[in-house]
Structure formats: structure tokens, C-alpha cells
Design goal:
The structure is a homodimer. By secondary structure, chain A is mainly α. Chain A contains eleven helices and no strands. Helix content of chain A is 74%, strand content 0%. At the A-B interface, helix 3, helix 4 and helix 5 of A face helix 3, helix 4 and helix 5 of B.
Chain lengths: 254, 254
């Protein structure tokens, strides 16, 4: 789909150029859409998942910042963590504004996200960098994909959070340099990148299987803008492909 | 010095009412003052110490957030951590703007501040809360004290960072409730508060002893607005007194 040049550019700005960028019609604003209790429940689920995703990303990045070899690198990862916390706050406040209990809304996603982070605790600084970059980019891809299926107000929020991603870019040059200096590092980090994507997909599938309302939003119920299971599969494929291109841009065969 | 009512108010807004609040004369702006290399070195030292103080506070608060009993409490401590990171960024950028290497400027303070945090790792959530509240307040007191001895530009920066403190206030009600529910918790936390202040003073004295330029700023050299050793002692006393009043307001005899 992309030329090699576009793939490098995609990797450079940390975002995937996907079909989801195509022009889409509005399904209405929050006031109109939320009259449907299924739609409302789906958005509460989605915001809860995103909010805990950001809060747990904050925690893990702050933890992984300890692996930094110097103060500048530590601060770069800490800066990402602070940005994730800011995203968390926006999502949390939106949940409260629409009358949902933010903590209750996040609760179903605590275990899957904690599991993801537990299974992918970086063993060293380079693994931490790759995880920060890949995690940031996958989150950005997912936000972009899901945004088109939302009412105008929720979409504006999701897009404004997404616009503030890309903090993982500092990792690219550092990982490339490390691989140039010691090529066999590349093999280890390529494996690591595959494991990150595998665990992310595995937890995402678990969530989709367990959360009816959220799955409905992704799959498309009667009241929700049409999306079928094939489309959900395609979405995961697009995100995986974007990941593959980014790993290649990092100098890693995925 | 304060009445009991004022002490409670002081504790409630997280700041100490000290002599340093008195009106003071300007010693000039940064361009004028920094012509003196001793003054310049002192400010670089001060900003380096404050910057690493904020970065290490970020790290420790993010770590201590893990002890939180629920998501709302975790987010409250994470919010403090994100605020400290923002302060770090302001101080870091100011160092770069005046031509100092931020990482080099922070380096002398890494060991004292890491030692402080190592010696005061909270054993549980309540100790973490008390540390967050006390640490935030001591930092605020110190900023306020030191601000009056600075050129206009550096003082503006220090005061703007300080104006954003007070995030530790959420801890007050929680600690009070815990003590009401189980009074003997109060004894343990009172000891803990004393230990926090003791370690803070011990590391501060170590820094003053080792850093000539910074000590000069506090003590007052020929080119620096006059402050003698007795005044430095008084400053530490004022900060300790403010701490004592705050601990009392928390329901803890210090």
C-alpha cells in the first residue's frame, strides 16, 4: 500500500497511514447518539479502556525510566509518562462529564492491561525504548481507527488526545545507533518487537471477547455505524502492518 | 510566631508563612547579576538542585503510586508526579537558556537526593501520602525562602514553579481519616514525619557543605545580597517550624 518512502515517513511521524483516514460521515453528536443505551455503554467502555491504558502507560514508563543510562534519557521517558498522565486526565474527566464513574469504567480493563505490562516488562533500556515507541504508535493507530466510528464529541476528544502522541520519536535514533554499534542487538530487539505486538493483540482479543458493548461498537450493532467482524479483523491487520513498517524503519525485521 | 488559627490555615494551604514573605528590594535582573561569575555559578547550582529535586520527586511519586489502594488514589499521586515533571522541564529549560548544561548542573545533586529517597522509601500507602504532602510543602517553603535572594528573572521562574505546588493537599483528609479510624497509626506516622524532616535536613546540610557557590548564595558573598550563616540557620529553623505546624494539622505530633 505504501511505498518505501512513505513507510519511512510513517515511521518518522509515529503514525500509520490507514484506510481509517478516509473522509467519513458524522453519526451525530453525543447528545443524539447517547440516547441509545448500547452506544452509551460502548463509549463508556472505550473511554474506560483508553483511560486505564494511559494511566498504566504512565506507571510503566515512569518505572522504565529507571533503566535510563543518563539523566537526559531518563527525562525523555519521564516526559512521555507525564504526557500519558495528561491524556488519562482528559479521558477521566470526560467519563465524569457524561455521568459515568471513571474508576468503575476503568475496572474491567485493569487486569488485561496489567497483564500486558507484566508480560512485557523490559529487561534493559533498549527494550524499554522499543516498547515506548511501539506502544505509543500502536495506541495512536488504534485511536485513529476507532475515532471514525464515534459521535462528533467523543471523536473530538479522542483526536485531541491522539494529536499529542509522538513523544516516542526520540527512541528511533537511539535504537538505530545501538544496532549500528552492535548489530546482534537488532536480532534481540526484533524478537522483542514481535512479542510486544503479540501480547498487545492477545490482550485486545481478550477484551473484545469479554466486553459486549465495546465489541458491538467495533463490530457494529443496529444503532452503530456499520462495521462487521471482517472489518475488525482488517483493522487489526492494518495496525499490525503499520507496526511492521515501523519496526523496519527502526532497523528491525519484524 | 503564628497563632493556632494561622498555623491551621498555613497547613491547609500547604505553605509556610515565613519572614521571607516580607517585601524585598530587587537586586537587578539576570543580565546584570550574572556578570558576577560567583552569582552565576550559584544560580546554576540552585537550578540544578531544584531540577533534579523535581525529576527525582517525579520518579518516587510514580513509584509510590503503586501502593495506592484504588485507582482514584493512584491517579492523585500520579497527578502530583506529572506536576513535578512539568516543574523539572521549566527548570531544565531555564538552565539551557542561560547556557548551562542541564545534566551537568544536576549531577552534583543526584547522590544527595537519591540518598534521601532511598532512606525514606515509604513502607505503605499512608507513609507515601505523608511523604508526598510533607515533601511538597518543604519544597514550597524552600522555594519561597530562596526566591528573595535571587535576581528578578530567576525569582519569577522559581515563584511560578512554586505557585503550582499544593497538589499534596489531597493527602491531608486521607491521613486524618486513617488516624481517626486507628489512632495508633498516628504514632507511627509522627515518627515517620520526623524521619522525613531529619533526612531532608541532613542531605541539605551535606549539599551546603559541599557546594561553595550555592552556599555563597545562601550565606551571602560580597556580590550577593547579604545573608549570613546565622540567617541560613534561621531559614532552616523557619522551614522546620512550618513542618511542625503542618504535622500538627495532620493530627501528628512531630
Amino acid at each position: 500500500m505504501d511505498t518505501h518512502g512513505e513507510a519511512a515517513q510513517t515511521a518518522a511521524d509515529g503514525r500509520a497511514g490507514t484506510a481509517a483516514e478516509a473522509v467519513h460521515e458524522s453519526i451525530g453528536d453525543w447528545a443524539a447518539c447517547s440516547a441509545d443505551p448500547h452506544y452509551r455503554a460502548a463509549v463508556v467502555d472505550l473511554l474506560g479502556a483508553l483511560a486505564y491504558g494511559e494511566l498504566s502507560a504512565f506507571e510503566r514508563l515512569a518505572e522504565d525510566a529507571k533503566l535510563a543510562p543518563n539523566l537526559a534519557d531518563k527525562a525523555a521517558l519521564a516526559e512521555m509518562a507525564a504526557a500519558e498522565f495528561h491524556h488519562y486526565r482528559l479521558l477521566h474527566d470526560r467519563l465524569a462529564a457524561i455521568g459515568a464513574d471513571p474508576d468503575e469504567s476503568m475496572q474491567p480493563f485493569v487486569e488485561p492491561l496489567d497483564s500486558f505490562h507484566r508480560m512485557t516488562a523490559p529487561a534493559d533500556w533498549l527494550e524499554g525504548l522499543v516498547k515506548a515507541f511501539v506502544g505509543d504508535a500502536i495506541a495512536s493507530d488504534f485511536y485513529r481507527e476507532v475515532a471514525v466510528r464515534l459521535d462528533d464529541d467523543t471523536r473530538d476528544l479522542v483526536l485531541s488526545v491522539m494529536a499529542d502522541t509522538g513523544h516516542g520519536q526520540f527512541a528511533v535514533a537511539k535504537v538505530r545507533t545501538a544496532i549500528e554499534q552492535e548489530p546482534r542487538v537488532g536480532g534481540r530487539l526484533a524478537l522483542w518487537g514481535r512479542r510486544l505486538m503479540g501480547e498487545a493483540l492477545s490482550q485486545a482479543q481478550r477484551v473484545v471477547a469479554e466486553r459486549d458493548a465495546l465489541s458491538n461498537l467495533l463490530i457494529g450493532g443496529a444503532e452503530v455505524r456499520g462495521f462487521d467482524l471482517v472489518e475488525v479483523g482488517k483493522m487489526f491487520n492494518r495496525i499490525t502492518e503499520a507496526h511492521t513498517r515501523r519496526m523496519a524503519a527502526l532497523g528491525l525485521a519484524s
